[in-house]
Amino acid sequence: MDNKDLEQKVDEILDRGMLAECLPTKEEFRKELLNGKKLRFYMGFDPTAKSLHLGHSQGLMILEDFRQLGHEVIFLIGDFTGMIGDPSDKSSARVKQTPEQVRENFALWKDQVKNIANFEDKNNPFQIRYNATWLGKLNFSEVLELASNFTVQQMLERDMFDKRMKEGRPIYVHEFMYPLMQGYDSVAMDVDVELCGTDQIFNALAGRTLMQKIKGKNKFVIASKLIADEKTGMLMSKSNGTGVFLDLDANNLYGALMSQSDGMIKPLFIGCTRVTIPEIEELMKLDNPRDAKMRLAWEIVRIYHGESEATKAQEFFISTFSNKELPEDIKEMIASEGENIIDFMVKVDFAQSKGDARRKIEQGGVSIDGEKIIEGALTLTKDKFNEKILKVGKKNFVRIVF
Asked: Fewest C-beta atoms under 10 Å: which of 133, 160, 210, 304?
């Protein structure tokens, strides 16, 4: 890649608007990217859930852009820090994760992000590291040495700690250790750049401090914007009922995106798709925001499930929600693994008896996610039917959950 092409590509990444801050400055970071030196980037993930979400995907797509420029990128699994829990933006301490939970959670991630993070490139793949490799080996004197680089006043500057103190809520000593541990990750991997969300800047700067004091080396901290509604400022999150997780099947992923507010359309386009900025601007000018949202949903489903599945999901959405076949609020009912469809229909009061349930199936009045059920011996399993919508007749709908 010649200098002109490199400059264009770097500016495309930096100007896309996904980065909220570059420390020390964006200009210095750009200069470093253009000097031809191979940099080592990393982003850390605490495996505290079984699925990553679109907020994570934004960061991984940024790392993939830099990997394609020839830089070294590291997907760091916080298997040690995950057992403690980051207090960032939390009003109370997180529940600790066991080593078994950490391993189980991470086992699902690589498959979820394989289409946005290239782990298989022969020359320069996404690297996977685990911070228990070095954090688990630190002795007490080494931990004390790390702690001597920071003051209690510095720790108490964090908003969440200040808020807890004012409200009389406890702050545990081990929570002060989290920034030290995340900071030491940078030292152990000898990185040049850390990518994080804006809620992680304090921790990332702890790493910058330790790099300077221990290695005499500067580290760039680049913070990606958190995905938030342009109009209300509300963050995409599970607690807000707006989280979109990467383990959803094509239909449910499409539906989850269509349920987002209009103010989420542009941030999701910019952070979670490869659609160009000029095209995004044109889409945002459409008379009906729903048309832009449908394109957004199709693009994201295409990334994770392929073009064919994205088109099928869109057709399913149009034939059900757009044509008013489904109500806005669908109740959820719990199914047991291996439960017979007939028994389930009776349990949710969609049939008066097993015989009634069989007749409704034989008459073609029963479907799951738009596909008619023709076999009364069908058994419900989590891998095939979780979050699917059962429809009986014209007005009876229920979401199957396990």
From this structure: 133
Whether 86 shows a pLDDT value over 80: the answer reads no
Please tell me the predicted confidence (pLDDT) of residue 324.
Answer: 56
**Token pair 């852009």 is at which residue?**
65
Q: Is the distance from CB of 350 to CB of 392 less than 8 angstroms?
A: yes
Look up the pTM and report it: 0.76
- For residue 398, the cross-strand partners are 390
Taking the C-alpha atoms of residue 135 and residue 240, their distance in angstroms, rounded to an integer, is 33
Look-up of token digits 């034939």: 319
Look at residue 92 in the predicted model and tell me its pLDDT: 45
Show the CA angle centred on residue 363, arms to residues 361 and 365, nearest 5°.
65
Q: How many CA atoms lie within 13 A of 146 on its CB side?
A: 24
Catalogue all structural domains in the chain, each as residue range(s) with its CATH number: 3-224 (3.40.50.620), 250-322 (1.10.240.10), 332-401 (3.10.290.10)
Residue position matching structure tokens 């030196």: 37
- Cβ-contact 296, 244 below 8 angstroms: no
The shares of helix, strand and coil residues in the chain, as percent rounded to the nearest 5, are: 50, 15, 40
Residue for token digits 């210095």? 28
Q: For residue 249, what are the contacts with CB-CB under 8 A and spacing of at least 6? A: 305, 387
